[in-house]
Amino acid sequence: MVRFVTNSEEETELLGTRLAKTLTSGAVIAFTGDLGAGKTAFTRGLARGLGIEDRITSPTFTIVNEYEGGRLPLFHFDMYRLNSSEELFDIGWEDYMVRGGVCAVEWSENVSDTLGKDSILVEIRRGETASQRVISIEGVEL
Known about the structure:
- Helix content is 28%, strand content 26%.
- It has 142 residues and is of the alpha/beta class.
- The chain has a single domain (2-138), classed as Rossmann fold (3-Layer(aba) Sandwich).
- A 7-stranded mixed β-sheet has the order 1-7-6-2-5-4-3, covered by helices on one side.
- Strand 3 (64-67) and strand 4 form a beta hairpin.
- The chain is globular and about 40 Å long.
C-alpha cells in the first residue's frame, strides 16, 4: 500500500490521472471514503488520464455513468444505495466487466464480496485541513 497526501481537489484529480496511466482493460477501482471525501474528484482524474473529456458527475441516483471516447471506456458506479451484491448483478455488473473498460466503484464496501481479489483499492480520508486528503492505494505500482 502506498499513501499520498493531497492538498486540493486538483491534486486529488492529478493522482487519479496518474493512476489511470497504469490501468488496463478490465481494471476495477474500489473506492472507500466518507461522503464528500473526494471519490468523484479522483474519478475525474481517472477519466482525464484515460483521455475522456466528458463532464464527470457522481452517479448517486443513476447507479452507473458510462463514459466513452478515451483509451478505455470508464464505468463509474455508486453503490451507496445498494443493499447487497445481488443488486449489483441486477444492474448488469457482469456485462460491464466484459466490455473491456475500467470500473470505478464508489462505496465499494457495499459490494466488496463481488469485486474480486485483483481490484485496486483506493481509500480516501479527510486530512488535517478542509482541503487535505490522505489517499491510500493498494494493488498497483505507482
